[in-house]
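Lecture notes, continued. The same structure-token format from the folding unit now serves as the input rather than the output. Read the line below as a description of shape only.
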């Protein structure tokens, strides 16, 4: 094996683990409303599959999770920056969506600029 082959294999493993984590977070916090298929519930919860907003500017999508929007609650005290990055990276690449992934550092900077509450690290933080 060449060093390049090993590097590519490691990237694929890391990407697969991140996708699995993002999918698990989605299943726990999002699928009840947006459905496991990402198709939502018409008239109640928007579809994420094929959604132009979801595939648009990553900071706008992350802001929804950090501050809430419409009837959607904010997840700032419930999810860490890494959790938000992982779930949004999953959603932005699932069901035919083809948008770039987000990093935890991007979410942390946005959380700070929005003055969103910090992650409560499990201290009775789940209000959903």
């Amino acid at each position: 094996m060449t060093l390049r082959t090993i590097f590519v294999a490691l990237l694929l493993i890391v990407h697969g683990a991140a996708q699995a984590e993002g999918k698990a977070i989605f299943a726990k916090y999002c699928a009840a409303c947006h459905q496991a298929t990402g198709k939502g519930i018409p008239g109640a919860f928007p579809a994420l599959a094929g959604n132009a907003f979801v595939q648009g500017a990553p900071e706008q999508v992350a802001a929804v999770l950090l501050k809430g929007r419409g009837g959607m609650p904010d997840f700032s005290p419930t999810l860490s920056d890494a959790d938000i990055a992982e779930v949004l990276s999953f959603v932005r690449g699932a069901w035919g969506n083809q948008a770039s992934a987000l990093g935890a550092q991007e979410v942390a900077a946005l959380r700070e600029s929005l003055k969103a509450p910090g992650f409560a690290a499990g201290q009775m933080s789940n209000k959903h």
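Point for the exam: The chain is about 50% helix and 0% strand.
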